[in-house]
Write a structure and sequence with these properties.
By secondary structure, the chain is of the alpha+beta class. It contains eleven helices and ten strands.
């Protein structure tokens, strides 16, 4: 029944856009939206009362052609069921193709991805971009006092059952000690906000599109590394269930190194590890507020935000492995002449 109602919403969007509402459709996997695909168009329906797709409809036409964002056909709907229809772009999801790609193909895709990011990060964030309801990282959209929302959230965590107060104290100390490395927090340039290979199309030779800009915001370029490095470390958490078993972190081990070679400015800040740690904390604290632990952390998945936050606070997260080149669990000991991308200074 759920699938029938979802398809009905997609067909209603087609009808409201003046398109053939009876065209053949197939359901596509998505974490945040209902997505349906035809031969010509892609329909996304957002069931949350935040109209994030309205932001994307506003932003899409402003993106440079090099990003490959699809042409927008129509936007509409209502609060709790707004929709966006775009023209299909050639290619398949890059993360789906990645397990069977050769090393040469992967290297080429990463090089093209780096160039695409340069083009994206050159875009000035529109002053009138509609506000985002809940950015992935709990950071203020201003130059100074950037961590104020994060500090407020940490006070809330102190009251949560099954959240160790000692964990909150460790995290608070890290934020207080290193917050100055984020300032001034440049919000003049556009970042994607949800950057991983599930949002990239690949046609076998070239990247054809970067998709899903509903989390886009103004921010420093390296803010986009937060989700991307998380994806490289644990890619199987970000992909569709039907190919999760074929998705391995070892296949993404070279990606941070390749990206650092092709886009060195993204890794050039002298306090890059401290910045990435703060971005990571701001992401995990927001998720922890959304998904409070229902029982002690020891009984939860290691990927629950409370356990991710614990590893980050103790200096044993995926970021520390990228900084030190040490890898007890993740295959991030890939060698490069430039050394680990987040090497400590």
């Amino acid at each position: 029944m759920t699938n029938q109602w979802a398809e009905a919403r997609a067909r209603r969007a087609l009808a409201e856009a003046g398109l053939d509402y009876a065209m053949p459709l197939r359901r596509a996997s998505s974490v945040t939206n209902e997505v349906w695909i035809s031969d010509e168009v892609v329909i996304r329906v957002n069931r949350r009362p935040n109209q994030r797709l309205r932001r994307e409809a506003f932003l899409g036409p402003l993106l440079p052609p090099e990003v490959g964002y699809p042409d927008i056909v129509a936007y509409g709907g209502e609060l709790g069921a707004d929709w966006l229809i775009v023209r299909r772009r050639p290619g398949e999801i890059l993360a789906r193709r990645w397990p069977t790609m050769t090393t040469g193909e992967r290297r080429s895709a990463t090089r093209q991805f780096a160039l695409l990011l340069r083009n994206l990060h050159a875009v000035r964030c529109p002053d009138d971009l509609p506000a985002i309801d809940a950015a992935p990282q709990l950071l203020a959209n201003r130059e100074y006092d950037v961590v104020e929302p994060l500090m407020g959230a940490l006070a809330t965590l102190d009251t949560m059952p099954y959240v160790d107060p000692r964990l909150v104290a460790r995290v608070r100390n890290i934020v207080e000690d290193t917050a100055p490395v984020l300032e001034p927090f440049d919000t003049t340039r556009l970042v994607h906000g949800d950057l991983h290979f599930e949002n990239v199309l690949w046609d076998g030779r070239a990247i054809t599109a970067l998709l899903d800009f509903e989390w886009a915001r103004g921010g420093p370029d390296d803010l986009d590394l937060d989700v991307l490095l998380r994806f490289c470390a644990y890619p199987y958490l970000h992909v569709a269930e039907d190919y999760e078993a074929q998705t391995h972190s070892r296949d993404y081990a070279p990606v941070p190194y390749w990206l650092a070679e092709d886009y060195p400015e993204l890794f050039s800040h002298p306090h890059r590890l401290d910045r990435m740690r703060l971005f990571c904390i701001a992401y995990d604290v927001r998720e922890l507020l959304t998904f409070p632990p229902p029982r002690p952390a020891s009984e939860l998945s290691p990927h629950h935000p409370v356990n991710r936050l614990d590893r980050t606070s103790r200096g044993i997260s995926h970021l520390d492995r990228l900084a030190d080149g040490l890898d007890p669990e993740l295959p991030w000991d890939f060698t490069s002449e430039m050394g680990p991308p987040l090497a400590r200074r």
